[in-house]
Amino acid sequence: MGCFTFVKVVMVVFNLLICLAGMCLAAVGIWVTVNKDSFIRILPPFTDEFMSHVNVGIFSITIGAVMTLLGLLGCCGAQKESKCLLIMFFSIILIICIAEVAAAIVVLVYSSYTEIILRSWAIPGLKEQYGKDQILTDLWNSTMTTLQCCGFSNYTDFSGSYYYKRNGALYPPTCCAGPELFPCDEDNANFSSVVGCFKQIVKVTQRNVDIVGGVAAGVTAIELAAMGVSMYLYCYLDKKAT
After folding, report:
1. Interatomic CA distance for residues 172 and 149, integer angstroms
2. CB-based contact 77:88 (threshold 8 Å)
3. Across all residues in the chain, what is the average pLDDT?
4. Where are the transmembrane segments (predicted)?
5. What is the pLDDT of residues 32-84, one digit of tens each?
6. Distance (Å, whole) CA 69 – CA 72
């Protein structure tokens, strides 16, 4: 088996796997969209309320469709030895890589402003909509229960809020550590010193930064390999045509 034939077979098999994975992901997305309740029941408690308000179905269908399209382009391009399909495959992967690099640069450049941006969004929501807007309330309750945190910075985010006034100057139960400190008034909340959710999210992110970095590096390596293989096949066919 020559080098070209070997690379061609690898390209076909690899893209068939991508195509199958994309179709499976799209099928899951359709399942979530059509019968969301049965899908949510198999997930951990944190996602029970969160998933009901996030359109995971559409997201899964979109990503699955893109993966299926890429798989078909790469597979057909290699199998039929089509330079047009191969260059389309290469171009799409290149665009995805550029978008990923641009997103990473934006995150790095504006990481110092992340807390300021999130605070300007979160605090008004806690003050005015928590306890009034059911979707926002459920999302915050899920987050605070799962991460064992209170508010964005701490319990003071709820001081003077709609929830605070409506519940007789009380804070959400998660702001007090332990049932012995109920009712969760200002003294008990202050004594509990439950940290804010932003600090907890940062801790979780830092704890899993190696995993995230490893996954990102793996995805990048696969994308570069796919680009290299498709370009090799394209150049070989172009040379063969001349």
Report:
1. 11
2. yes
3. 79
4. 12-34, 54-73, 85-110, 211-237
5. 777 655 544 444 444 444 444 446 667 778 888 888 888 888 888 888 888 88
6. 5
pLDDT digits (tens, 9 = 90+) for 135-148: 888 888 888 888 88
Question: 175 to each of 49, 90, 196, 197, how far by Cα in Å?
Answer: 20, 52, 9, 11
- Asked whether the CA dihedral 210, 212, 214, 216 is positive or negative, the reply is negative
CATH architecture group of domain 129-202: Orthogonal Bundle (1.10)
Compute the distance between CA of residue 175 and CA of residue 151 in angstroms, rounded to an integer: 8
Domain ranges in the chain?
3-110+213-241, 129-202
Pair of tokens at residue 20: 């199958």
Report the half-sphere exposure of 15 (CA within 13 A, side-chain side).
29
79 CB burial (10 A radius; 0-12, 13-18, 19+): middle
Number of residues in the chain: 242
- Contact of 119 with 141, CB cutoff 8 Å: no
| Angle at alpha carbon of residue 108, lines to 219 and 125, rounded to 5° | 105
Contacts of 121 (CB under 8 A, 6+ apart): none
Half-sphere CA count of 183, side-chain side, radius 13 A? 8
Residue 187 neighbours by CB distance under 10 Å? 10
Dig out the tokens for 116 from the structure: 């300021």
- Contact (Cβ atoms closer than 8 angstroms) between residue 227 and residue 93: yes
